[in-house]
Amino acid sequence: MFGAARLTNEHVKAAADGGKEALGHVVRVLESQVRLMIAARLSPNPSQLDAVDDLTQDTLMDLTRGIYRLENRTLGGLKGFVSVIASRKVFGYLRAAKAGLGQLPIRSLDSTVQSLSQAGPLWQFLSGSGPSPSFLAMRGEHVASLMTGLGGLKPEHREVIALAVFDQLGATEVAERMGISPKAASQLLIRATRKLRKNMASCIKAG
Amino acid sequence: MVDFHESDDSTHDLVERVDTALQALWQGDASRFDQLVAEDENSDVDIGGVFEDAMQGSATTGVSSGPSAIPGYEILERIGRGGMGVVYKAFQLSTKRAVAIKVILEGSLAPPQARRRFQREIELTASLQHAGIARILESGETSDGQPYYAMDYVDGVELRQWVAGNKPDQQATLALFEKICDAVAHAHQNGVIHRDLKPSNILVNTEGFPKILDFGLARLVEDDRTLTLQEGDAMHVAGTLRYMSPEQTQPDASPVDARSDVYSLGVILYELLTGQSPYELSNFLPEAVRTICERPPQPPSSVRSFLRGDLETILLKALEKEPSRRYASVSDLAEDIHRYLAGEPIEAHPPSRWYVLRKRAHKNRVKLATAGMCLAAAVFVLWWSMQPKYDIDYARRECLGYRIGLDSDRRERFLAAALNASSHYPELPDAVLLWGIAKGHSTPHAAIHQLEYNRKRGQDAWWYHAGLMELYEQIDRPQKALEHSEVLSRLAPNTAEAWYLRSFAALDCQRALSFAEKAVDCDQGHGHVLSWTRLANLRRHLGDFDGAMAAADHLAEIDVDSGRARWLQFKGDVAATQRRFREAVAIYTEGVEADPNYMPLYRQRAHAYRRLGEYTFAEADYSKGILVIPEHSPYPWLHFHRATVRWILGRRAEAVDDCRKAREFTAGPTFADARMYVILRELERTGEADDEMRKAIHEARGLQDGGWLASVLECLAGVLGPEDLVARAGQDTSNPERECEAYYYAGERCLLDGKVDAAIRWFRSCRETGVEFDQDVMPDPMTEYELAGWRLRQLSNTNTPQATTSTLHTP
Questions:
Q1: Is A122 on the interface with B (CB under 8 A)?
Q2: Domain limits at A71?
Q3: 3-state secondary structure labels for all residues of A2-33
Q4: How far apart are CA B166 and CA B206, in angstroms?
Q5: Has the ipTM of the complex gone over 0.85?
Q6: Size of interface A-B (CB pairs under 8 A)
Q7: Which positions in chain B touch A1 (Cβ < 8 Å)?
Q8: pLDDT tens by residue, A19-67
């Protein structure tokens, strides 16, 4: 089980009701997931590795401060809440970066695959702990290729994967967030995943 | 916006299937998601597995073509996963035997680098022919081009499971371990270092024979590539960090050789014999790495007393931090195990006294330097305990107090306090600063990152630059430090509060002092208590005792919260630290006149009288201290101190009563039990002494950190030899007081046995340690050091205490 899937409604309620221990537990459990949520939306290149860390911490801080305002004190409510915070953080970051640099800093990563493979530690960090150093190394490369594949997707494809897979939202919630029907969201998710798989396969062949 | 209320069956079905697949994926089962996406598609990429991999942090195989993909084999079941690949049990059709087949972990996703590593694993393992190493039978590529190899199928279980299931005795465990060593030694002789030895990489077959697996991280001795942790980034601990040698955890890729495997084997043997790890590792990676690199392992005999002696020496030699102090090879380790089993003398020996002293001198320098800070931290702790709630002042005080105590092993508590404060009050500049510095204590880069993060998300406040300037100086980036210094000089106000905060941000004590001096210079009204307190503590810490006294004089006037008595105590302590005990007594007396109900003054004055040899006055002051303490919150150490003094005064029965009170108030065994035992034996109340001792040893063994106390008590009881006690003290090079205690109690043991000459030697050794003060609470006297001097005086007057020859039976 990963991230929010390890939490229960009771955890969420206790944290939202002001339980410090429960809140600490929620934040610890969500930390790795939030990193992936941010990374999946940014598909960062090595120069933006700090941004993933910053936005993750920012998201967790906002969660800590705002969880008591959560009306729907269930796991579903929490996942939606965190998802919205993370999306806003990334959106804000991209807008600021665009304004400051004159161009969107997030690119398809074809040109930086090589650099990514050297950015082991962050990817190890992104993908959480593992059973041995060799696992860490392997997983780092694996996650790097995933991020590369995501970087090559259309924005709506990347968004639907981020919402469904990393934010852990169901088809109906994804649909509401994207302003489409649940059926359309489901179909979009399948199409996006197939496209991602093709991207990754071609990337592997090229590599 | 599209209508959300479509309700035809196909729509509902699709949404439901997607939801079900997603639910399973979040729970760690990617198969349904793969199935959903794979319909009408042909692709080798196991996308659900990739998602699962990213989320779970555990790679899944990409061998989507299934078991029939390997010609000549029938795949039966998946039996495990190694560092580099997934392992299947298979049936080799040509030989009709069971084999294990390992297929590269990423399957079709494996990048070239991983394939090269896998190939290397095959080559290295194939070069090894030993009964204790799983043999490679064949290697090749699956029908879709994925590398694999077939090896002996070991019908057995992992080492830890085997031990749990078979519960071998110590001899059998060591015999098994010797076989493991033989196999690893064979690899070393062929130039292959394993680098990932751990119980899960060792299988034990049904005949009880071990097989080493997974040479996925192995390398040739002459190969200069190393695999180490990267500094500061991966914040969570990988499972096998527990078995990593100190040199493997270092980012500078210091040479990793066969002695790293010696270390890993040492950890494995430690776990096999004690049932627990030699260290308790934090989940916070830098902290865990620090533990591995710096903290001595817990003495095995403190976990299992039967390990005392040769076996403990063997374990501790294998676990030495410096590779040069370990066994030079696994063969040497195996030979010592063999000698032990054969009842022969082992080659390893405990660390020499010179080595122990050298290590202690190094450690002691830091402790001495921070002792002053500890005292101030203790005052703050007392202060916090009186605070009713977590308000902004409380947060501030908590942080500052722990900051003072940072160097004295309160790092984790400080981290928690600072994080708490900075999350509740991000606008509180010292909280933010301190949080950054706290992180900086583990890794300056992480602290810089934290401060930069805070700076970016809020205003560009001067205090961030103060912290960054300090940290960049610490990591030797003068240009960056200068940049922040320039910003700081523009933005930072010239106020007492600002200089006070900068003093706390300073990582160098001298600079911290200069900032504190500027703070009091700016304090026009001379009423900024925090700045003056900081100044007083820093001056004392840096040895400017007159300056500290002057600051304390000023504080005695302005600090209405703490009061004049508290600062007179500070002054008295400064005088006592300088060994000006008569002056200290006069200052404490002034304090007692200012506040007759302030207990620390009586206690400190009693300590000073003890140093002057005026035990009657000391006894009277401890008694007064006991009287002013409320009955509902007794202070057990006053009774302990009074017991010591009463014993010296010859009031033994009263001393025993005090020891009992100290024990009662602490609700557990303490050194008061040791004291009581010796006094009871002098009173010839042997039966009572033995009964109390049995109880105390039993309780001390049950304490989480009671290993040392248990050893002392066992030594007094005759269960542990005096030399063994001293050797055990030498294993903790970070604790100079322990050495002093060991010599003293060794001497007392000898006196109980009637060995006066030996006792004199031990007491002299105790005095030679020079540990006059208890380093944790300067300037409290080190009782054992004092008692050793008293004993020597007694013995030189030939007025020896009555020697007794009976020893206690092992409880």
A1: yes
A2: 2-206
A3: CHHHHCCHHHHHHHHCCCHHHHHHHHHHHHHH
A4: 11
A5: no
A6: 201
A7: 26-28
A8: 877 887 888 788 878 888 888 887 665 456 567 767 777 788 788 878 8
